[in-house]
Amino acid sequence: MRNSVKRKSNLPSECTTIIVGDKMSADGSRFLCRSSDFDAMMAINYEIHTDTQHGPKEFVAKDSSFRCPLSEEALGYTGLPDYQFPGEWGSAGFNTAGVGMSSTETIFSSKEALQFDPYVADGLAENCTYNIVLPYIRTAREGVERLGSLIEKYGSAEGFGIGFIDDKEVWYLENACGHRWLAARIPADKYFCTGNQSRLRDYDPNDKDNFLASPDLVEFAQNHGLYNPAEGKFDFHKAYAHDCKEPGHDDFTYNYPRVWGLQKMFSPAIHNDVTKNTFPVFAKAETPIDLDALRTAFRFHYDGTDHDPYLHNNGKEPWRPVSIFRTTQTHIIQVRPNLPQAIGHVTYIAMGMADLGVFLPLYQGVRDVPEPYKTGNGHADDKSAYWAFRKVMTLAMTNYNAYAPVVKEAYTRLERENDERQREFEADYLSLCEKSPMKALDLLQQFSDSLLLHALEVARSLENELFTRLTADIQKEYLFHGA
């Protein structure tokens, strides 16, 4: 995401996306994941909507001029908006039909493409894509089709990439200039990662199983000199996306290193050049990717190398890490098709900076969350979950090398305990749901509430531990000890 609409911050807003096919994962899961990097002061709150026959007839954006009609019949869904815009900037979650969505990854079209099909100032922007799509779709493919039709009708206000996931497949859509777009189905045996770049390249208009696109995508590019068939097959990125030769873009330090680092982590046999955009669009990992590997990936900051900004206390490090302090939340959306949707569809959420945060599960079947997860705002407090986690990472960043290990150890232990608790709970849920489905849902709600509240206890205990250590450190520095 980025700050192109009137969001109340002057900071830029960008993300990192990772998607994993079911044959590339360790247990047959599909994953759709993204960090949302914006402004640490913008608290994120959980949002849960229920199915309705009487929803709003029109979407009116709170922070842009976009508006569009809506069906009154809408599915329930979860969201992760920042506190200023409830019902908008939903970001990530599932609807009650079992479709997950992550919106959005900021990308950039080329100046040449925008000359012929410019962005539409009052068109579809990142603030609205989630909430006008997810409640109205029943498959990932439908999500692509609905979003694509909205782009064609209203035009895009900016560049974005958006993912959809369900029990059968994962799709990723990138828009191209004002009214054009391409979506690809993620290969089951590959993974995909991106950081603020258009990454899609191949497109076969005849392969409807794996590609969807605006109807004149290739023809438009050819007619306006963006693509010459004599030079080879159509390349979506080459035709429509900016490249690093354009002034004002930071691909060499801001975008390429993230893709390079993640592919090096998952696929060390791939010898990428960090300075060239020759990274494979879809890649095979050396070992199957699981939840823990994705948690590690979103904590990546060139750990232990010369480019590690936290190890070297270097806020001016040119290589932008995956995990940065102003991340507001990171989500790992997991689909396990072999389980009931209520527990098979999970969104793991780390509020704030993933490197100093903890990933907590939100099952699709959960009907509510404890009040602290719904009440954060732009000022630190003693009640909200967002600020409980943010305070810990803020204290840890005052002396990363001394305090980060304390936080990491506690949260690693909590994640491992939660993993085991989840295994035990899911077994109990499965044994109960066939004969007593409502009791199973009650059990799910109790388990979720308990787990989320316990995480707050751990965070507040860490806050006190770090304050204790910081107090002792400051006393040593300013002791002024006499005889």
Number of strands: 16
Strand content: 15-25%
> What's the rounded overall pLDDT mean?
95
Helices, by number, come to 10
Distance between the termini: 59 Å
Task: Please give the share of residues in helix.
Answer: 25-40%
Helix/strand/pairing category: alpha+beta
Which stretches of 5+ consecutive residues score pLDDT under 50?
1-6
Secondary-structure element string:
EEEEEEEEHHEEEEEHHHHEHEEHHH
Give the overall form: globular
Blueprint (SSEs and pairs):
Blueprint: E1 14-20, E2 30-37, E3 47-49, E4 58-60, E5 67-69, E6 77-79, E7 92-94, E8 100-106, H1 111-116, H2 140-154, E9 160-165, E10 170-176, E11 180-185, E12 191-194, E13 211-213, H3 217-223, H4 236-240, H5 251-266, H6 291-297, E14 327-335, H7 341-344, E15 345-351, E16 360-363, H8 385-397, H9 400-433, H10 437-477
Antiparallel strand pairs: 1-2, 1-12, 2-14, 3-6, 4-5, 7-8, 8-9, 9-10, 10-11, 11-13, 14-15, 15-16
Helix pairs in contact: 8-9, 8-10, 9-10
